[in-house]
Amino acid sequence: MEKSIAENQILNSHMLFFDPINKVADIRLDSKGGYAGVYYRSVKPGVKVLENGDAEFTFYAPDAKQVQVAGIGGYMGSEKHDMQPCGDGYWSVTVSGIPAGFHYHEYFVDGNRCINPDAPVGYGCFYAINYFEMPDNDSDFYLMKNVPHGDVRMELYRSSVTGRMKACWVYTPPGYEEHPEKEYPVLYIQHGVGEDETGWIWQGKANLIADNLLAESACRSMLIVMNAGYAFVEGKESVFFPGDFDSELINDCIPFVEKKYRVLPGRENRAVAGLSLGSTQAFSIAMHHTDLFASLGVFSGGLPITRPEYDYTAFFNDAEEINRTFRVFFVSCGEQEPMCEPTMEKMDELKRAGAHVTPYHHPGYHCWDTWRYSLRSFLPLLFAE
After folding, report:
1. How far is CA 155 from the centre of its chain?
2. Burial, 52: exposed, middle or buried (Cβ in 10 Å; 0-12, 13-18, 19+)?
3. Using the 8-state DSSP alphabet, how is residue 79 labeled?
4. Which of 47, 88, 233, 253 is the most exposed place for a label (fewest CB within 10 A)?
């Protein structure tokens, strides 16, 4: 088989699910071995949040000797919880005291890490991984509500850096198709290490956050573009930045978006943001291209003024220059992140010097809850008329 066929990118591209079914299909035969129909039976959900706020974990492993479940740091912690046989080949355990929020977690069968096919699966930490949501009554800003909804479209463009095709997700706000005369500003927003362009949709709920804010007239209608921030080139070692995503965004993605979509021209109508690694990418891109971006959001990235690749100390010692360059300079952290205190102190120092910067912090770890709250606070600041 030709290499170009065997390695075609689409062969490894798969969508997961929107509405979990928790059913399996049994094909039944009649007494003569003929087809008698398909029957659907329920399976136990891998994770179920109980009314009292506990979480019940279930795993089907009829031949296992030991089954465990554990979080990956953050709210749930990484303690392994022993599951017990509960009949029909299933194991289960109920865990109390898990705080509200988004939780990556792992299952271990006889010491081997496994995916639970009956629990939600996403892409994070560089591999397919189970997750669940522990809801609360104060975090409905990212839930699906009966409001007008925008569209999320997968677009393909060619990277001049890697020579490969790239996928980006583009959120268009409600009314985009109904008002062909209208043009929109654009936010380019990046994921973190181990995630990809799907993260801000499936884990981050960016489209729903925007829908709900727009329904409240709390932010301006905009496009949101979500890219994979990896631009690896074979033979070149990447240390922190995963290749030259800067060039890919500026030379390939932005021209593609601005040719296909109705966008407003000018730096005042472009913003760039990101979380963790993506926040440092966004910071570097904004600082390298102040002619293209007037707004910047740094979520859980500290305040990376100096790195081996650059040094912007002089710029950030000049409050007037900051104000001339950025209409919005937003930096956020989760309060349980080690970087939070020194980052907020530096932001307060910039404010005292006269810089128009926006610090934001919220209870949380280095996880999607923090970044959802960050996005909710960031979007209303953008593209004020």
Report:
1. 17
2. exposed
3. P
4. 88
Measured CA distances, 50 to 42, 55, 69, 133, 162 (Å): 18, 6, 17, 12, 47
With 70 as the cut, is the pLDDT of residue 111 above it?
Answer: yes
Q: How many CA atoms lie within 13 A of 345 on its CB side?
A: 5
First to last CA, the chain: 56
3-state DSSP assignment of residue 317? coil
Using the structure block, give the residue that is written with the tokens 């194991």.
91
- In one letter, which amino acid is 239? V
Label residue 27 left, alpha or beta by phi (over 0 means left) and psi (-120 to 50 means alpha). beta
Tokens encoding 95: 């865990």
Please tell me the pTM assigned to this model.
0.91
**Structural domains for the chain:** 46-138 (2.60.40.10), 141-381 (3.40.50.1820)
> What is the DSSP-derived secondary structure letter of residue 338?
T
User: Using CA atoms, how far apart are residues 206 and 379, in angstroms rounded to an integer?
Assistant: 10
Strand partners, 306: 311
Is residue 15 over pLDDT 80? no
Beta-ladder partners of 170: 153, 225
Question: Does position 236 have pLDDT exceeding 80, yes or no?
Answer: no
Q: 278 vs 90, 165, 253, CA distance in Å? A: 40, 20, 16
pLDDT of residue 24: 74
Do 261 and 170 form a contact (C-beta atoms < 8 A)?
yes
Write out the two tokens for 336. Answer: 């349980």
Say what the pLDDT of residue 35 is. Answer: 83
* Measured CA angle at 187 (ends 218, 200), to 5 deg: 90
- Residue 189's φ and ψ, nearest 5 degrees, are -130, 135
Per DSSP bridges, beta strands 84-87 and 90-95 are antiparallel
Pairing between strand 328-334 and 358-362?
Answer: parallel
> What is the rounded CA–CA span in Å between residue 247 and residue 244?
6
For residue 10, pLDDT over 70 is answered with no
DSSP string, 180-217: TT--B-EEEEE--TT--TTHHHHTT-HHHHHHHHHHTT
Q: How far apart (Å, rounded) are the C-alpha atoms in residues 172 and 174?
A: 7
